Amino acid sequence: MLRLTITALLSTALLAAMPVRAADAVRMNLGWATPAESDYGVLADKFKELAAAYSGGTIDVRLRCCGQIGTEDDAFKALQLGTVDGYIITQNNVAPHWPLMNLFVLPYIFRDKAHLAAVAEGPVGDEIRRMIQEETGVHLLTFGAPAYRDVFNSRHAINGMADMSGLKLRVPNNRVMIATFRAFGAEPVPLAWSDTPTALQTGTIDGGDNGTTVIKDMKFHEFADHLTILEHFTSVSPLFASRRFMGRLSDDQRAAVLRAAEEAGRHQAAVMAQATDDVRAWLAADGGMAMTAPDRAPFIAAAETVQAEFAAEAEPRFQALLTQIRAVGTE
Fold first, then answer.
1. Which 3 state secondary structure label does DSSP give 63?
2. Residue 1 has pLDDT above 50, yes or no
3. Which of 11, 129, 143, 292 could pair with 120 as two cysteines, CB 3.0-4.6 Å apart?
């Protein structure tokens, strides 16, 4: 008995003297559909850097741009299956798998950048993360930076809602977007993206709305003299991780990943805000566009009727979240 006791004591002493084994290194393949130098790349690069730093080098994020590990259309399902570790997915491509994401498609769902940040980083954002994880098994690490659509047209400046009357503006074949431009007083023309440049050049449409960088890259400023800053639609592209990947992490590594994602999202927002300002300045100067920024209050009021219309068709949880989002910052 004495021998067993001594042996046990020696074993305990040896175990106590042994160094604690560091967390195992974990590799994460992070994909997105756009080029490496795109806005998604800004988020991914910063996340990779911070995840390594905060995990003591045990999180190795491998960047897979340009659809290398699958398309954005299929990415959410792949995350659910665990065949993809992480992916940055535009909100529109999340909604088919989790319909409540359609909230983010509504016009002026966010009053401004500060409102979006307060929603994403506050209790409502936490609730959305919890619901997605619980109902799909996928972890939303950060909502990422907002992108906004600007209106361009070839007829006249838009200084108020009355100036929208009669403008034939191209829209995707999306019910919310069509209803929004009707509420603004314009004539929405559902048109495939591939047909848009020719329609603008031939006068079939007077203009449309796109992200500011798209307007520059597509050279729409050569056919449309007027740029209007409305920021009526907000687009987010969250960074997601699979349950399988998150399950491979220690508690400290998981905390490192979440911290890295949160800070990378803020970094991306700052970079994109500056880039948007720079492109708008270029369009107004080198691009020769007359830029206006009308009072948004009438547009927001019209957008709220669209929000109400689509909320009336939606499930109670959609309506409840819409109410919560609207209330953020007004308390």
1. strand
2. no
3. 143
Q: Which residue has the tokens 């020769």?
A: 288
Please give the CATH topology (third level) of the domain spanning 148-234+289-327.
Answer: D-Maltodextrin-Binding Protein; domain 2 (3.40.190)
CB atoms within 10 A of CB 134: 8
Q: In 3D, which of 39, 26, 1, 8 has the Cα closest to residue 239?
A: 39
Q: Which fold has domain 25-146+235-277?
A: D-Maltodextrin-Binding Protein; domain 2 (3.40.190)
CA atoms of 175 and 307, how far apart (whole Å): 12
* List of residues 6+ apart from 56 with CB closer than 8 A: 22, 23
pTM: 0.81
pLDDT tens, position by position, 222-251: 999 999 999 999 889 999 999 999 999 999
Cα(102)–Cα(84) distance, rounded to whole angstroms?
23
